[in-house]
Amino acid sequence: MQETFEVRNVKCGGCVKTIEEGLAGLPGVTRVQADTEGRVVVEGEALDRQALAARLAELGYPVRA
Predict the structure, then answer these.
(1) 15 Cβ partners below 8 Å, 6+ apart?
(2) Which of 10, 33, 61, 64 could link 6 by a cystine bridge, Cβ 3.0 to 4.6 Å?
């Protein structure tokens, strides 16, 4: 299963690292790939899109509407 998000406030490699590390520990997540354009791809089993979006917002990278 894969979920893709477009998020705000991604400005550098440090932001990318924060996103990847911040989502990596969530239940079901096996892989996170983010880029400086604000694209975040999460792979895993039984992913909860709302929980992922909430965690992104907590990290300071809200999902674009």
Answers:
(1) 9, 34, 36, 61
(2) 64
